[in-house]
Amino acid sequence: MRSLIDIFELSTDEVDRLIAKAEDIMSHPTAYVDKCRGKKLATLFYEPSTRTRLSFEAAMYELGGNVLGFSEAQSSSAAKGESVSDTARTVSCYADIIAMRHPKEGAPLVASVNASVPVINAGDGGHNHPTQTLTDLLTIKREKGRLSDLTVGVCGDLKFGRTVHSLISALSRYEGIRFVLISPSELRIPGYVRDGVLENKKVPYEETTDLDGSIGKLDVLYMTRVQRERFFNEEDYLRLRDSYILTPAKMESAKEDMIVMHPLPRVNEISHEIDSDKRACYFRQVMYGKFIRMALILMLLEIE
Ligand code: NCD
Question: What angle do CA 187, 191, 192 make, to 5 degrees?
């Protein structure tokens, strides 16, 4: 039995197979409508979510399975002081697979050690978000046709943005990837990603505060919001939240075939005028998220 806590637990080959499976589901959805008949997914969300929780639930329904769970800690026994490990043991009695989001880094790992069914990390604090990364990889593959030989700009809150940490880890394993890390100096990428991944794997990267000066060389621009809930004080958040706003004027310097991605939710960092630009693919990215989660559920439940 396997869980998915960190994207590194999947080999590159497995990631490629998940992408291929998601593409097959997109082309032949009717072949999958009964694959999870009789199976149940539990979504245990201790933190707000729209896309991740609903795409997991939609994924399980489209596979013919059922869903149970909670969408806020206050409505679960966590409010009475129950530990994540006890909750994981309990839910294992009711469900065949668990997707968990938690504000504390490592909570889904603790759940996976105590559960007797597979646990998927649906975002743990400012740490990791492996299924967003699978979504992002499928998006890049579909929109750019490849996962290698790309200059990828990642812009915004690189310190607390968990999707960024998992994305850099995953893309660093492909050939010819270089990163341009664009953030205010206070929100630079954490050392465990810079040293542990980029330096360690000798992946070319630069750190800059300058979006205007960098946008012209990018194949992919991955925007992120400033993670208000992870700041220690509101003043710092207010000072940093509008550091980068992508506008049509800025897009004029970008390549014709650059794609703009965003894990969403967007707050203020992409002007709504960009939505009609053909390079904006963040709403298609949302759609890919459901298909890759279908592929992942099948893999972890060992259903062909
Ligand atoms: C992201 C998250 O929860 O980390 N959202 C998502 O899952 N698509 C990004 C964010 O909240 O900024």
Answer: 120
Q: What is the CA radius of gyration of the chain?
A: 19
Q: What is the pLDDT of residues 129-186, one digit of tens each?
A: 999 999 999 999 999 999 999 999 999 999 999 999 999 999 999 999 999 999 999 9
State which ligand 1 atom lies nearest to the alpha carbon of 263: 8
Q: Which CATH number does 7-128+286-300 carry?
A: 3.40.50.1370
Residue 135 C-alpha from the chain's centroid = 6
21 lines ligand 1 (CB under 6 A): no
User: Which residue's structure tokens are 């593959």?
Assistant: 141
Domain with CATH 3.40.50.1370 in the chain: 7-128+286-300, 131-282
Q: Catalytic: which of 51, 144, 217, 255?
A: 51
- Tell me the C-alpha to C-alpha distance, in Å, between residue 27 and each of 21, 139, 182: 10, 15, 36
Alpha helices in the chain (DSSP H): 12-27, 51-62, 84-92, 107-114, 130-144, 162-171, 191-193, 211-214, 234-240, 248-251, 282-300
Report DSSP state, residue 204. Answer: -
- The answer to whether 129 touches 121, Cβ cutoff 8 Å, is yes
284 by Cβ neighbours in 10 Å (0-12 / 13-18 / 19+) ranks as middle
Q: Is 132 in the pocket of ligand 1 (CB under 6 A)?
A: yes
| Overall fold of domain 131-282 | Rossmann fold (3.40.50)
pLDDT tens-digit map of 171-197: 999 999 999 999 999 999 999 999 999
Nearest CA to ligand 1 atom 6: 263
Which residue's alpha carbon is at the smallest distance from atom 1 of ligand 1?
Answer: 263
Catalytic residue among 21, 40, 129, 241: 129
Mutating to test ligand 1, I would choose from 7, 51, 131, 163 the residue with most ligand atoms within 8 A of its C-beta, which is 163
